[in-house]
Amino acid sequence: MLLEIAGLTGGYGGRPVVRGISCRLDRGEVLGVIGPNGCGKTTFFRLLLGLLRPMAGEIRVEGTSLAGLSSREVARRVAYIPQNHTPVFPYTVLEMVLMGRASWIGRYQSPREADREAAFAALERMGIAALASRPYTALSGGQRQLVLIARAICQDAPLLVMDEPGASLDYANQQRLAVVIRGLAGMGYGVIFSTHNPEHPFSAADRALLMREGEAAAFGPPAEALCSEQLERVYGIGMEVVSVTDRSGRVHTLCLPV
Amino acid sequence: MGGYQLEEKRLRQKDRLRMALLAAVTVAAVLLSFWIGYYPLSPAEVVRAMLDGWGIEVEVIPQAVTIFWQVRLPRILAALLIGGALAVSGAAYQGMFRNPLVSPDILGVSSGAGMGAALAIGSGLPGWCIQLFAFAGGALAVGAACLIGARARENPVLSLVLTGTMVGSLCNAVVTLVKYFSDPNDVLQQLTFWLMGSLTKVDLAGVLTSAVPMAAGFAVLFAMRWRINLLSLGDEEAQSLGMSLRRDRLTVILAATLLSASAVCLGGLIGWVGLMIPHLCRAVFGPDGRRMIPACALMGGAYLLLMDDIARSAMQMELPIGVVTAVAGVPFFIWLMVGGRGAFHAA
């Protein structure tokens, strides 16, 4: 099992924000985390990334508990794909992706030729090698996202954690994102992403974690975890989950407020 | 592999060419500085005077040897070291604080180091104590800037600049107090002259004493030149990429502070170099620390050397170099602020 989370509790100043979350994820699987504002998604992610120490419970990646690991050791297991952001300095795309190698490079060392090749391989995998010499700050939101994903690939960790990858993407790029995430799972990564759109787990995830006030309201395949009753309970508005078939015969799931 | 990789390689070669060019300019600046002055030393004389000093028999005027070893060489070395130290520490601070508007002087580190050194000079402590006090004062100032600046929620870029201004002003007040209580015939003169920023009184021994801590600080920053990139992304991102944040940050801050405090010890308060040069280097070489740090060392050294040449030769009497760098630096800062969005956002 790639990821095992058992009874995870964590928060700030002795006050738990996330309480007793348990879930599992295998290689090649995608987990969508969803819930209203303030439900503890961010805290959950900080715990996953080792940025926050759990108050109780455990996170195991490939059998190893994250507790007590150095940030370098955590980074070799869990890679973070932050929300779209603008760095202060205009690094080139290649420089940005190279930073993914940090956990494999000594403290007083710089990247070597092999690291550069790994960065190029990651860029080629995302189909953006042509951007290598461009400044990251000059790219569009969708391109930046692909660069950050390439950086995570370069980091060579089996688990990828994406913080609201859909945010700040335009409509077409949001639709492409599901394909990209499925592609990452196809490469053998375990992927966890957070979202505000309950339809995203249906199109991209194998499992969904529905959070409410710091607890797991539901965990399981999207069709089970995100049924109308659950969504209504968590969001406090009338919801209906419907399936539609498009002209090519593919089935889509839509979540509608009613 | 594909053509993009080749294209990228070509760009890297261009960068190497630029770096070589910068090194050549620095060498040219050194030769020019030997030549400028009431007794111009030609490159040939420089070589002969140097060989003579090493005990190799050459035909050379004794006067040239004295000027080379006792006047020009200490001063040129001091300008190269101070300029390089201020520029490199400025680049490190800018990356670490994710703030293109900071530098040793703007953060208050120079004033803090000045305060430490003034206290040591005022109480008549020996030379090594001045170094130590300067470093402690600089560390205190940067520590205060970190603590207060990190707590400000609105506009972190400007908060840090303002915090630095406050800390610097407090340190300058202490310096004024030291001056007020010191002997006007002896210590006061020495203090005033040194605080203006001047290379007139440097000697070879003083240069070599300051060169040791500078070399240590530079070695650390040079080794971590790539890691500084990661720090500039922000805390959470840097840590999730595998950096041990607290340790790496502390190392970079201490090394940068050691560099700037040693520069203050050697030449007094010389402003603006630590802000200007990193910006120019970034414009030429891009933001990657692997090129920024060595480029700043070269360009900072060459820049201060040329400024010192102006200070020495612009007028009949010598100008304090701190005045010259301020006259060149302030318009640059105004241009950064007003001349487009570049400075406050990217650079």
What is the CATH superfamily of chain B? Answer: ABC transporter involved in vitamin B12 uptake, BtuC
Indicate the percent of residues in helices of chain A.
25-40%
Strand content of chain A: 25-35%
Structural class of chain B: mainly alpha
- Shape descriptor of chain A: globular
Q: Which CATH architecture of chain B would you pick?
A: Orthogonal Bundle
The main sheet of chain A orders its strands as 6-7-8-3-9-10
**Helix/strand order of chain A:** EEEHEEHEHHHEHEHEEHHEE
Number of helices of chain B: 14
Shape annotation of chain B: globular
Q: How many E strands of chain B? A: 0
- Major beta sheet summary of chain A: 6 strands, mixed
Oligomer: heterodimer
Work out the count of structural domains of chain B. 1
Sheet/helix structural class of chain A? alpha/beta
Q: How many runs of DSSP E, i.e. beta strands of chain A?
A: 12
Q: Note the total helix count of chain A.
A: 9
Content of β-strand of chain B: under 5%
For the residues shown, what is the average pLDDT of chain A? 94
Could you describe the 3D structure shown?
The complex is a heterodimer of chains A (258) and B (347). With 258 residues, chain A is an alpha/beta fold. In chain A, the strands form three sheets. Chain A has a six-stranded mixed sheet with strand order 6-7-8-3-9-10, sandwiched between helices. A four-stranded antiparallel sheet of chain A has the order 2-1-4-5, covered by helices on one side. Chain A starts with a strand and ends with a strand. With 347 residues, chain B is mainly α. Chain B has one domain: Orthogonal Bundle (ABC transporter involved in vitamin B12 uptake, BtuC). Chain B is globular. The interface between A and B is large, with 44 and 39 residues.
